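Sample intake sheet
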Amino acid sequence: MSAAASSEHLAPLLRTQRMSAVAELFKKLTVSDAAEIVKVVKTDGLSAMPAVAAELKTAIENAAAPDAREAALVAFGLLVAEFGAKAEPYLFPLVPALLEAAADKSAGVRTQATSAATALFAILNPYSTESALPALFDGMNQAKNWQTKVLALNLLADMAKTAPIQVASCLHEIVPRLTGGSSACVPTCCTRLKLPAERMICSCLASPPQTAWPTPRSRSRPRPRRPSSAPLPSTATGTS
């Protein structure tokens, strides 16, 4: 058997071993292990992302292990930084988990959740705006903690900068949610919620030429000419 053929047979086995090692790594995940997850994806390519994303989601939602939650969020941010828009299809479904983690009891988890979500939305495809709205609307629900609401609104405000046309076209859905999301908050929280909401709306409306959909030009009609002020012809009759 040639060396090339041998490597082709060994590649799947090595990939399986690496993914098994990743699964073991997630069982005792720490912040220092986050970079190892990125190395595995770089070695195996984006084909490893579905399995890694599933492990990240499980770790982020693990209520019994705050260190693992924080480490998974750090790894999330590193993956976004390393792969950019290529990672979006695999990491985007974790947005609800990030929003929930923003209200975590651990300060480290809250910080990393906000950082990871902000990084993801910075590279979000503008045409993913409509797909992102349901998760953000759910984050604005009155039953959610105020930290989750603030993060959802801040992400919406960020999208208004990166995808102004798409957000402007959805304002008829967004504005009612903004008024409903802060109605059950105490005054201090309402202030924190109001600022990103106002920032989002203002960024959409501040530059109409950039945010408005193009409209056909209206044809100019000729203005009617004013009647002449020339004197009427004389009607006097000649004398006999």
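Comment: The mean pLDDT is 78. The two ends are 135 Å apart (CA to CA).
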